Amino acid sequence: MKKLSAFVVAFIFLSIQPASAVEVLPQPFFNYLGSKYLGGPGVILIDQSTNEIVYQSGAEKPRTPASVLKVFTTAAIALTLDPETTFQTAIYKTDKKGVFVIWGDNDPWITSNSKYRTANNRAYMPTLIKAAFESDKKLKKINLIYKGVNNSDIYYAKKALKRKSSVAYKPLSRNVEVESLITERIASITSPPLHKMIRFSLLYSDNVLSQRLAMLATGRNGYPLTKSGLNSMILEKISALGVDTTGLSFIDGSGLDRKNKVSAVTVSQLLLKVKTDPRLKSIYDHLPISGESGTLISRYRETAPQAVGLIRAKTGSIKGVVSLAGFATSGEKEYVFVVLADEVGRTRSSQNSARKAIDRMLGTITKPPVIGITPPTPESTPFTTAQ
Hints:
Residues 368-387 are annotated as: Disordered. GO terms for molecular function: serine-type carboxypeptidase activity. By secondary structure, the chain is α+β, with helices and mostly antiparallel strands. It has two domains: 21-81 and 195-363, Beta-lactamase (3-Layer(aba) Sandwich), CATH 3.40.710; 88-192. It contains 13 helices and ten strands. It has helices at residues 2-16, 21-24, 27-33, 70-78, 114-120, 126-134, 151-161, 194-204, 207-220, 227-239, 264-276, 281-285, 348-363; strands at 42-47, 52-57, 88-94, 99-104, 142-147, 167-171, 182-190, 311-318, 321-330, 333-341. A five-stranded antiparallel sheet has the order 2-1-10-9-8. The chain has a five-stranded mixed sheet with strand order 6-5-4-3-7, covered by helices on one side. It is 35% helix and 19% strand. The chain starts with a helix and ends in a 24-residue tail after the last helix.
C-alpha cells in the first residue's frame, strides 16, 4: 500500500511539472554531458527567441573561462569606442640631431614581431625606427622618446633591426607636451578599424591583441592600467548592459590566467546582449563557425558533421580547462549555450576528449535552419592593414 501511495504521489508530481529539459533535449545530449572527461562542467542552454532556460547545471558557480573571456574583452572595447576607430603611430624629428619622438594612440594592432607581421599583415614598429636612420644616413646612433606606444614594442623593434646598441629610448615625461618637441613627421602607421581587430581577436583567439584591447578600454574609461583597474572596467561595462556579474573576477584580458572567474549564467546573459545590442554586433558576426572558420575550423567535421556551419562560438583552452560559448542553430530556433569545463585533465589527450564530448553534445541539438532563417556565414581570411 505504501509503495502504491508513493507511486501515486510521484505520478501526480510529474504531472504538474512543466516540460523538462529531458523532454526537450535528446538523451544523447545528456550522455555526452556526463562524459568523465568534462568533469562536471557549468552548462546552460537558452532559447534565444524567448530567453527561456532550457537546461542548466552548475551554471551559477564562477569558473575559469579560458579564452571565452575574450567575449567580455571585445564587448568592453566595443562599448568604449566607435567600431570605425583607427589608431596612428608616427615618428617625428626634433630640433636636436639624432633625437626622435614616437607618438601613438596606444594602437593594439602594432607589433615588433616579424612573424606576426608576415602572417597577419600587422602594423610593424621597426618600420618607424628604420625610417629615423634613413632620414639621415650619417646617423649611427639615435635617441627615441616615446608616448602612446608599448615599451615592449620599442624594445623588440631594436632587436628586430639588430640595433641594440645604437638605439636608446625612454618614455616622455608626463609634464612635457609632445607638440613642444616635434618638428617634421618622418613616417607613420595607421591601423585597420577597431571592428577588424575585434574580428581577429575572436576568430583567432589572439592573446596579445585581446590583452591590449582590454587595457585600452581600461585606460579610455579612466581606470588605472592594472589588474584591478581592468576588472573594475569590465564590471562597469558589463553591468551597465543589465548582465548579472555576480562572482565575476578577471585578472587579464586574454583568459590565460586560471584565477579568472565567471559563471556560465553571466556568460549566457552577455551572449544574449551580443545578439540584440547593435553596439555588440561585430562580436556576433565574428565568432568562429563550426568546421568553417577560425579556431573552430578543424572541429565538428569528424565529431559531429551534422553541426558543421550551425554553431557560432568562442573557444577556450588552457591546462585543465576546455570551454565553448556561443550560438547553435536548431531548425527555427537558435540556442545560446555555455559550457565551462574547468576540471578536465591536464594532458592534451584528456583535453581533446573533452572537446569531442562538447562537440558531440551540441551536435545532438543542431538542425539545418528553416527556410527564411539565415545560417552563419563563414569568415574570410585575414585582412591587410594600411601602412
